[in-house]
Each structure stands twice: as structure tokens, then as C-alpha cells.
Design a protein that fits this description.
With about 260 residues, the chain is of the alpha+beta class. It folds into two domains: about 80 residues, Orthogonal Bundle (Arc Repressor Mutant, subunit A); about 170 residues, GAF domain (Beta-Lactamase), CATH 3.30.450.40. Helices cover about 45% and strands about 20% of the residues. Strand 6 and strand 7 form a beta hairpin.
């Protein structure tokens, strides 16, 4: 593949002449490909230019080479990545997406995180409706009886799910709470199939929600977004119909956290 075709295939603009932009192109390609020829093809840059930039990146420890001569992320970039991850504020990242979702669905929206065997609320944003949810930021609720908890549990292996139940138990919160392992397993299988979870008055009587998983940069489900309402305002079918909105918002937050869908 020639340089022009390569650049077109990879969405690389041939008009890129800025030295900083060239360096970033090579650095990004070196994280995706180990072979020099693949890096050249991905960037669409001349071999000499690519080689010169890689030499600088090697000297500054942004990339390194393995015993086969392949390029890998270097210690400097790994150190910077670690510092960046320490400074991530999931609430600040998610808030604009949550605000936009509230405007669209006119319901309360939560962002929750897995915290041991419970879900910890990190964000709660209310709509313009007169009712208010009993939840609050900093409050923890059980995994098995909440929409956010279920989407996190859906990322567990079957063995891990069994260990969770043995460890945490299945406390009955309402008359609709799932309190046996077979019932929870059937529910989690359904969540995996459809990509969202429902809370059908399983945690608080009269409160229902639909939730979707949020992935971090490693592809791990650590968070969830839920749309919550009361049964006097919406039916279960109506809240389930909002699942595409929950999924779209969760996906947007995941991408903001560095997750790339495969």
C-alpha cells in the first residue's frame, strides 16, 4: 500500500506538516503496532521521518523496544498514564452527559460505582418533576436489588457471581427483590443479552429504574448510569423504553474515560 492510500485508509490527513502532529501520529501508532513497517503504514509518513521521530521517542523513553525489535510503550508514557489516571474525576467527566440525559428523559439520573459488594452513588441529578428520589450521593445500596448493581454483576463470570452471593447474601429489600441464586442468575443472563438492567421496585417500593454499564479505559465495568422514576409517573414498560437513552449516555461516558469498543 503506498503512502497516500495508507493515509486515506487510516484517516490520516496528508496535509499534516506540523512537527508536533507528526510526533503524535507516530506515538499513537507505536501504541497500536510493534513493527516499524506497520507504524509507517498507519501514519502515512515517510520512513525516514518515522524513523527519526521514533529515535527521539526512544531517547525520551516514551517508547521502548523488545528483544525482537518491536516497539512498546516506554516507562515515561506509563508513568504519565498512571499520574493521569490518579487525577481522573469520574463525576466531573460524567456530569455533562448526565445533565443532557436528564433534559431528555425528565427523570432522576444516577451515576454509581461498584464499592466492594455494594453500589455507591457518585452523582444524582434531578429533573423538573415535583417528586424526589430517596437516594443521595455517598449512599450505598445492594448490588442485587439495583439496576446499576446488576449491570456490574453482569460483567462477572458465573463463578464470581456465585462467590458474590455466598459472600454478600441476597437481602430482601421489598417483596420483589430477587433473593435466590437461580433467580439472580436468570436476571443476569438477561442483562448480558440486552445490555441494560431493570430495577422493578426491588430496592425501594414504588421506585423503578433502567441502568446501563460504564466501562473504564481497560474495558472493565466499574460504574453504571441509571434513569430512575416512580411508578405513579411511569410504568415499567415506559422506563424500559428509555434503555437506549441510558445506553447511549453510558457509552459516551465510557468513551470519555478512554474506553474503545471492540
Amino acid at each position: 500500500m503506498d503512502t497516500e492510500a495508507s493515509a486515506a485508509a487510516h484517516g490520516t490527513a496528508l496535509t499534516t506538516t506540523n512537527a508536533s502532529e507528526k510526533t503524535l501520529l507516530v506515538l499513537e501508532a507505536a501504541f497500536s503496532y510493534s513493527r516499524f513497517t506497520d507504524i509507517v503504514e498507519a501514519t502515512g509518513l515517510p520512513k525516514a521521518t518515522t524513523h527519526r521521530i521514533l529515535a527521539t521517542l526512544l531517547d525520551r523513553q516514551f517508547v521502548t523496544v523488545n528483544k525482537d525489535g518491536g516497539y512498546l510503550p516506554g516507562p515515561k508514557i506509563l508513568s504519565l498514564a498512571g499520574r493521569a489516571l490518579e487525577r481522573i474525576d469520574i463525576s466531573a467527566i460524567a456530569q455533562p452527559h448526565i445533565d443532557a440525559l436528564v433534559e431528555r428523559v425528565h427523570c432522576t439520573v444516577h451515576l454509581g460505582a461498584g464499592n466492594g459488594d455494594e453500589v455507591l452513588y457518585l452523582v444524582r441529578t434531578d429533573s423538573d418533576t415535583p417528586y424526589r428520589m430517596p437516594s443521595r450521593v455517598g449512599h450505598s445500596i445492594p448490588m442485587h436489588s439495583s439496576g446499576i448493581g446488576k449491570v456490574i454483576l453482569a460483567s462477572y463470570s458465573d463463578d464470581a457471581l456465585e462467590r458474590f452471593v455466598a459472600r454478600a447474601g441476597l437481602e430482601r429489600r421489598t417483596h420483589r427483590t430477587l433473593t435466590t441464586l437461580p433467580d439472580l442468575e436468570r436476571e443476569i443472563t438477561q442483562v448480558r443479552q440486552v445490555g441494560y438492567a431493570l430495577d422493578r421496585e426491588e430496592n425501594v417500593p414504588g421506585v423503578i429504574c433502567v441502568a446501563a454499564p460504564v466501562y473504564d479505559h481497560t474495558g472493565t465495568v466499574k460504574y453504571g448510569v441509571s434513569i430512575s422514576t416512580i411508578t405513579l409517573q411511569h410504568t415499567e414498560d415506559q422506563i424500559e423504553a428509555m434503555s437506549p437513552e441510558a445506553i447511549a449516555t453510558a457509552n459516551a461516558i465510557s468513551e470519555a474515560l478512554g474506553y474503545t469498543p471492540h
